[in-house]
Amino acid sequence: MSIVDEVLAGYGALQASQEAFYKDLHQHPELSHQERRTAARVAGNLQESGFTVRSGIGGTGVVGVLSNGGGPTVLLRADMDALPVREDTDAEYASSVTAEDADGHEVPVAHACGHDIHVSCLLGAGKLLADEVSRWSGTLVTLFQPAEETGDGARGMVDDGLLEQIPVPDVALAQHVLPGIAGTVGTRSGPALSAADSVKITVYGRGGHGSMPQNTVDPVVLAAMIIVRLQTIVSREVAPGETAVLTVGSCQAGSKSNVIPDHAVLQLNLRSYAQQTRQRMLTAIQRIVLAECQASGSPRAPGCETFDSFPLTDNDPDVTSRVAAAFREHFGDRAQDLGQQTASEDFSDVPRAAGIPYTYWAIGGTDPRAYRAAAKAGRLQDDIPANHSPKFLPVLQPTLRTGTESLVTAALAWLAPQSAT
Ligand code: ZN
Ligand code: ZN
Description:
The structure is a single chain. By secondary structure, the chain is of the alpha+beta class. It has two domains: 3-192 and 312-415, Aminopeptidase; 195-309, 2-Layer Sandwich (Alpha-Beta Plaits). The protein has 13 helices and 18 strands. It has helices at residues 3-8, 11-27, 36-49, 115-131, 153-159, 162-165, 219-237, 275-296, 317-331, 349-354, 368-376, 380-383, 396-415, and strands spanning 52-57, 61-68, 73-79, 98-100, 106-108, 138-145, 171-181, 185-187, 190-193, 195-204, 208-209, 244-253, 259-260, 263-272, 303-310, 313-315, 335-337, 358-366. The strands form five sheets. An eight-stranded mixed β-sheet has the order 1-2-6-3-7-18-8-17, with helices on both faces. A four-stranded antiparallel β-sheet has the order 12-14-10-15, with helices on one face. The protein has a two-stranded antiparallel sheet with strand order 4-5. The site of one zinc ion has 4 residues, from loops.
């Protein structure tokens, strides 16, 4: 029996309480920067497992440290926040929670990105490793960050002195649950998740009566022209082999059919893998907005602000191959290659600040039968809800078990390296 198997032998005894913990989190989702209940439950659970706990880092961030003799220091990370989404699943533990968002609006809240899975798996992995300290040596750091969805939770912890409060890790590891066969894990070397930026554009017109457009500058038409023209950035300005996405996710102007408003607000989201591509897209957006404002005779310079920026997740080749080898050893053919994702993550802000290598992998969360049926029918996009969908809900098992096993297996590739051979 390998050391990994010996440590994971404790999963059976853990499973019921982990599932209960997960269901509780799922029913009590909290928005980015508001993860107070979650953080308190995490801290309590870590303490019970024997970790030294620090809370309130970067707002609601929590770290647990378990020092167990000489050897490497491994950081395992989970994110805790939920989304302003109204859950539309038939789970008996579905969320009906609402909360006040950063703008003061009452919004529905749900764990529509599966961060409750990440938290539950990491606590489970910490407990299993803490219960078997005779089988490994080194230091385990578990990090629970707030506000992944807004892209500033990891940076907030770093800015609040995270790295002075934990032993310097040798490696950082994290995972995300995605649509895919539950029970599988996917690794990828090099760029795995895209960089992301959001851009808010405000264009100005001159308001007036809907019956007398000749007296106005119509910002609705101006915004429409910008939206159409923005579609040419990826299709005409980015090389065909280069991955780039530009989505106009929000367009707001006016409130009445017969009033021409005086401004319009667009919100854009960009994804890219190469810094050059990212810069080219941002420059093109500026150029197009300015030119369209001029074409419309806009009376005022447009406003343009970038927000919710996420770094590129660029997995270290050596770290990734070590994790992939450990996964192959433990999961067999359930260990797979992950395709490049256009999703984004702020996880890498922590290892980047610490100057250490990292890797980030995916675990499947979809019922295997439903996934295979949809794949066979060519209906994956139609039938399998993706993260952020109101219908996104990972199957409880084997998702929780696989996410727990993957963290333990990857950590032991450093903390008990003979287990990987
Ligand atoms: Zn998300
Ligand atoms: Zn997420």
